[in-house]
């Protein structure tokens, strides 16, 4: 709760007039407790899980000709029953794990120094903090993801996430409850190391989920603004990981590609891109007699 009773008191304490955004924040948060504001994260996660994937689901179910040419695995399609089953399981984990975790996380949020007061951070401050959060999460997620692909980790936990070899947006948070908890650690590590404002924290949570939904979309759109983000993996990079499945030792990164490149876990993917990328173009152009969509070494995993 803000320690100011009026806008005038807030401006006197800060020593300047409040910006428009700060006035809005004051109007909304002045009489609300920090715990209540922290719990807003649950609402933002629910909206991200439920609404952001809907256009992708529509494209998946409607088989739109102008859109299908961008589908990474065009011969693998999910039914409406599969989509509903995926979303239902995501909501079950949300209600049993994600929501309760957010309700009890307030002491940790307060301890690391995430603030709710005035003044609000500048745009540059928000941008730089979000950049740190993405880099830190990406590096931590890479190594945890690799560990989950060991025999025990995959069979006991991670195989749930790989049930969808041709993922859709709803499949981004589709995982074993233990994986949801484990991968929450690198997601919170950035805000813990470089704490900022609650608004920055909310933006981080939402943007990270939107990014995960995009990489699990099953579509590679040439007009996506993420094409201009350096070292960004995108849907095609992560789709390859799902396509290979349990035996995959490639493309572990969640956001960027530098870890896979540095540690050599993208060799199969780069081989496919360099030597066999033409297969996908052939399929999209109607030449379905030249082989499969993805290829590893000299053996086709699947053929069209």
Automatic annotation (TrEMBL):
Q: Does the keyword Transmembrane apply?
A: yes
Membrane-crossing segments per the record: 34-59
Cellular component GO terms held in the UniProt record: membrane
Localization per record: Membrane
Any one Gene Ontology BP term: lipid biosynthetic process
Q: Which GO terms describe its molecular function?
A: iron ion binding; oxidoreductase activity
Domain Fatty acid hydroxylase stretches: 131-265
Q: Which InterPro entries match?
A: Fatty_acid_hydroxylase (IPR006694), Sterol_Desaturase_Related (IPR050307)
Pfam families the UniProt entry points to: FA_hydroxylase
Alphabetized UniProt keyword annotations? Membrane, Transmembrane, Transmembrane helix
* Family stated for the protein in its record: Belongs to the sterol desaturase family.
| Name of protein | Fatty acid hydroxylase domain-containing protein
């Amino acid at each position: 709760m803000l320690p100011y009773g009026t806008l005038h008191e807030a401006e006197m304490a800060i020593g300047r007039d409040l910006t428009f955004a700060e006035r809005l924040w004051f109007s909304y948060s002045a009489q609300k407790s920090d715990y209540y504001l922290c719990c807003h994260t649950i609402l933002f996660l629910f909206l991200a899980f439920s609404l952001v994937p809907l256009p992708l689901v529509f494209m998946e179910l409607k088989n739109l000709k102008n859109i299908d040419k961008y589908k990474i695995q065009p011969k693998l399609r999910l039914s409406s029953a599969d989509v509903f089953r995926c979303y239902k399981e995501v909501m079950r984990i949300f209600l049993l794990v994600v929501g309760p975790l957010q309700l009890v996380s307030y002491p940790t949020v307060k301890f690391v120094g995430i603030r709710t007061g005035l003044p609000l951070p500048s745009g540059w401050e928000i941008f730089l903090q979000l950049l740190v959060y993405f880099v830190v999460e990406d590096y931590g997620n890479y190594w945890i993801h690799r560990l989950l692909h060991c025999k025990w980790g995959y069979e006991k936990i991670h195989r749930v996430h790989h049930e969808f070899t041709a993922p859709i947006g709803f499949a981004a948070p589709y995982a074993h409850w233990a994986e949801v908890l484990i991968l929450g650690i690198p997601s919170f590590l950035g805000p813990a190391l470089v704490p900022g404002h609650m608004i920055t924290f909310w933006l981080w949570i939402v943007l990270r989920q939107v990014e995960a939904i995009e990489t699990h979309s099953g579509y590679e759109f040439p007009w996506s603004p993420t094409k201009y983000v350096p070292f960004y993996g995108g849907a095609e990079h992560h789709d390859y990981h799902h396509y290979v499945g349990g035996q995959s030792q490639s493309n572990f990164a969640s956001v960027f590609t530098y870890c896979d490149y540095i540690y050599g876990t993208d060799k199969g993917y780069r081989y496919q891109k360099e030597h066999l990328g033409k297969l996908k173009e052939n399929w999209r152009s109607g030449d379905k007699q030249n082989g499969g969509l993805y290829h590893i070494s000299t053996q086709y995993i699947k053929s069209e």
